[in-house]
Amino acid sequence: MQIEEIVARCREMVEEPSFVVVEQWKTAHPGAKAVGCFPVYSPVELIHAAGMLPAGVIGGSNQIEIAYADSRFQSFVCSIVKSTMELSLTGRLKAFDGMVFHSICDPGRNLAAVFKRNYPDLAVEYIHLPQNMASPATLEYLAGEYARVKSSYERLAGRTVRDEDIHQSISLYNRVRALMRRLYSIRSETPHLLSTAECYALVKAGTRLPPEEHELILQDAIAAILRRSSRPKDRIKVIVQGAFCEQPPIELIAAIEEAGCYILDDDFLLGWRWFLEDVPDTGDPFVALAQSYMNRSTYSSVKHDLRHSKTAHLIEKVRQLNADAVICLSAKFCEPALFDYPLFRLALEKAEIPHLALEFEEKMWIFDAIQTEVETFVESMLFD
Length: 384
Prior knowledge:
Elements: H1 3-14, H2 20-28, E1 34-37, H3 44-49, E2 53-56, H4 79-89, E3 98-102, H5 106-118, E4 123-127, H6 138-157, H7 163-189, H8 196-204, H9 211-226, E5 236-241, H10 250-258, E6 261-265, H11 285-295, H12 310-321, E7 325-331, H13 335-350, E8 355-360, H14 368-382
Parallel strand pairs: 1-2, 1-3, 3-4, 5-6, 5-7, 7-8
């Protein structure tokens, strides 16, 4: 199969707003449950180990109109909170038996309470992620939090989850994440062979499919990409930073590329690529997951880790990938991203790395203004 066919299949799947793929999985597995995972990071291994399907509920992008949720939230709340509520209010989340949220920001935290109050039959779980990675109690606390969540999912699934079950799920997700790292490596080393819009569709498919199916798709996609023949274009190489939770429409990603950029790295769909190395699949699985969250995971505006500088990570990434510039692409009203931007800006200016700051919303349909702004930025670098 050609890569274009694989990408088209994945894109059709992820742009369908009613989670038909999840319903089809439940039909094929009578009695099995599905749990929706709000970004950024969820311990999907624990859900999968209970025989359930963890699926990303990552807003509605620009595939739905906000007709009801606007009246439930303040005007200054980010789009993903509203569109996720809209999905629920319009019956598009009916395939889910549970939802899991976590402490990434105030609106995300409050959305868990809104779901719990409005949908009493839905198993709503809230994970309290640690806010102080330097504390000696953090590892024990987080391992205990994962054990608590596991018990909750045992009740939802109606079965006992053994350590062996979690180890098997960890091993499976390790293989999937390794394939995604390989996909990103191909994109950063030979961006003319794989566009970021294509890479995004391939990765996002995994937020709706069982990992067993996503693994096969990624294997086929990587093989097809390596058979591709394409010549590099005269473009600048950039890193996109800031879209870790609310996701830009695929058309916006394509517009940035068409404006003259090769995107070497990004923080799109970060929760599904959270671990930089394999999670150990032996020993205490809760400790393994907790240690990996603390020490083997990527930096993010919603991961509170004062042991390492987020700005230093960004500058190091620019140097390692030999990027020409950074595009700070933040969702409108996203406080974590907007709080970090001044820090990134100071660090980039000190390092003399050009950057461009842009804001987006899920519901965007027209990208001419952003594309023109990026084109101007690209031209200023190419012809300076």
